[in-house]
């Protein structure tokens, strides 16, 4: 490329731009097969509807089954009373881990 400033055949060494400020942004999510509770239909990162209405957002935890499906513990505890199977795949419900 020809340098426009000096008219010679060499490329300019001046940078085209300089970074004045840089902000890193990161996002995370649960490593689950489905990121919405299949029982209450609320995103797994948010509190379930019951905890939201009772203002207990901090107490709402997530449970994962061995099938890697996740649900709010409040929702799943009511579901297990009716059926001890995963609502999505009908596998036997065995809790793999609890988190929040």
Key terms for this structure?
single chain, 100 residues, alpha+beta, 2 helices, elongated
Layout of helices and strands:
Blueprint: H1 49-53, E1 62-65, E2 70-72, H2 73-82, E3 95-99
Antiparallel strand pairs: 1-2, 1-3
Q: What would you say this structure looks like, in words?
A:
This protein has 100 residues and is an alpha+beta fold. 15% of the residues lie in helices and 12% in strands. It has helices at 49-53, 73-82; strands at 62-65, 70-72, 95-99. Strands 2-1-3 form a 3-stranded antiparallel β-sheet. A hairpin with a 4-residue loop joins β1 (62-65) and β2 (70-72). The protein is elongated.
Strand arrangement across the biggest beta sheet:
2-1-3
* Tally of contiguous helical segments: 2
Strand content: 5-15%
Q: State the share of residues found in helices, binned by percent.
A: 10-25%
């Amino acid at each position: 490329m020809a340098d426009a400033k000096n008219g010679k055949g060499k490329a300019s060494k001046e940078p085209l731009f300089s970074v004045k400020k840089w902000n890193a942004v990161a996002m995370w999510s649960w490593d689950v097969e489905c990121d919405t509770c299949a029982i209450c239909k609320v995103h797994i990162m948010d509190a379930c509807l019951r905890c939201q209405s009772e203002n207990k957002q901090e107490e709402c935890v997530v449970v994962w089954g061995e099938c890697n499906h996740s649900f709010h513990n409040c929702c799943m505890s009511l579901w297990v009373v009716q059926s001890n199977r995963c609502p999505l795949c009908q596998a036997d419900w065995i809790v793999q881990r609890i988190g929040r």
